[in-house]
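User: I'm new to structure prediction. If I give you an amino acid sequence, what do you actually give back? Let's try with this one:
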Amino acid sequence: MKSAEHVRQSLLDATLELLRQGLNANASGNVSVRTDAGFCITPSGIGPDRMQPADMVDMALDGTVLTAGKPSSEWRFHRDLYAARPDIGAVVHAHSPYATSMACLRQDIPPFHYMIAMAGGNTIRCAEYHLFGTQQLSDAVVHAMQDRKACLLSNHGMIACGGTLQAALALAVEVESLCAQYWRALQVGTPVLLTEAEMADVHRQFVGYGDPATRT
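Assistant: Good question. You get back a string of structure tokens that encode the predicted 3D arrangement of the chain. For your 216 residues, that looks like this:
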């Protein structure tokens, strides 16, 4: 595991990158990284322009706050994803425009494009709606994330995970791009979907694909 200082700085850098990419605005969204003690998460209600590395909050997997500060109100689904999925090393939650627009329709993103496979399956699921910050929402997220690395949150936003923070960020950008492409395709007509066999070929082709640093 990397030092606490490095982890805190990386969370700040990721938060600023999400803002720069247009995936979050003001204090929306949150980011976390798995640590030896549990996980470190961005704080509640502090905008990126005021956030400092020292504001990041360390938590144990039982929900205990280990350092000063108030963690993001969404800490439950971060904790539960880490507890359920040993492969996850970082979690990015964003209120990005296109992913959130599709999430407000409460529909999965189907295999209209082969890059859907980057999220781990043949669809990007949309988790059931529950009030933000609740255990019910966390339970819905864990269910939607089964065999997946990303999902939408009904009337809320999206989540992307990865083995590293860099991988989770890269996937968040990809999910937003896919949602934008799907939204545009729907304006013209009904997208032709790839078959299960075609998607199986994609998954096989993706083995070892891309930059290992951003591979999810």
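You can read the tokens as a compact description of the fold. Here is one thing that stands out. The helical segments are 4-20, 75-84, 97-103, 135-144, 165-188, 196-206.
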